[in-house]
Amino acid sequence: METLRVLTPDDLPACLRLGSDRGWSEEPEKWAFLLRVGTGFGLFDGDELVGTTIVTRFGDEHAAVSMVLVASSHGGRGLGRRLVEHALAFADAPVVSLHATSYGKPLYEKLGFRSVGVVTAHVGAFGGTASGTSRPVAEADRARVVAVDAEVFGADRSAMWGALFGFASQVRVADDGFVATWLNGPVTMVGPVVAPSVARAAELVADVAVGATVRVDVRDPALGAWLEAHGVVPRFTAELMVRGAFSGDRARLYAPVMQALG
């Protein structure tokens, strides 16, 4: 029987190989960040990594489950369910969220998750201009960013932000919102985007997207249409699923840090 243990940074090459086996792009930066801010679990068949998941806990209120993978050679053995059930037990939180493909959705529904929306990944070379309505985050801004994020997300993510401020390539703030970016290979990932309106979210995105090939994961169709009009086109979708009930003012969350973080 496969053995389960906590993943370490030394397992990163094996995680990348497993992702490649399932047709995922290599994303070493993302994997490394998630293993830093969360707890990864791996199933091993001897020395071979054949399954993964990562749990990122935000205080006692919320946990995000991500990177659920099973090797193609080990499909049909119930390993995916075993991984997710272990993740849920480890999370021990009233709210657990994840983003699901159509392939994974039936399993998550059996484990008590329900879909609350579709997220569309938009990717492309941004063809707009900066709005000039935001500024680089200053040390004095950080506590406010973390506090507003907690209001919007519904959980204290200060530990994640402690790492994200160093990991992000940009964090920009305005009086009524903020935006961050991070590099995933050649693509600039835009998120989170927190704003009071679609128009304001678009202005924040414009300030970090100029001259870059970007990806923005959005639920709001109006923001998606604005992105498409500026060359950032829809590529694929995932379903945001939750076990429990979200809190917070999620209407202001126009894009997540990454799908793996809820």
How would you describe this protein?
There is one protein chain. The chain has eight helices and 13 strands. The chain has helices spanning 12-21, 28-37, 79-91, 105-110, 142-153, 158-167, 198-209, 221-229; strands spanning 3-6, 39-45, 48-58, 62-70, 95-100, 114-125, 135-136, 170-174, 177-184, 187-194, 213-218, 233-243, 253-255. Strands 1, 2, 3, 4, 5, 6, 7, 8, 9, 10, 11, 12 and 13 form a 13-stranded mixed beta sheet that branches. Helix 3 (79-91) links the parallel strand 4 (62-70) and strand 5. The longest helix has 13 residues, at 79-91. The protein is of the alpha+beta class and 262 residues long. It is globular, with a radius of gyration of 18 Å. Helix 7 (198-209) packs parallel to helix 8 (221-229).
What is the count of helical runs? Answer: 8
* Rg over C-alpha atoms, rounded to the nearest angstrom: 18 Å
Q: Residue share in helices?
A: 25-40%
What's the end-to-end separation, in Å? 31 Å
How many runs of DSSP E, i.e. beta strands?
Answer: 13
The amount of beta strand, in percent, is: 35-45%
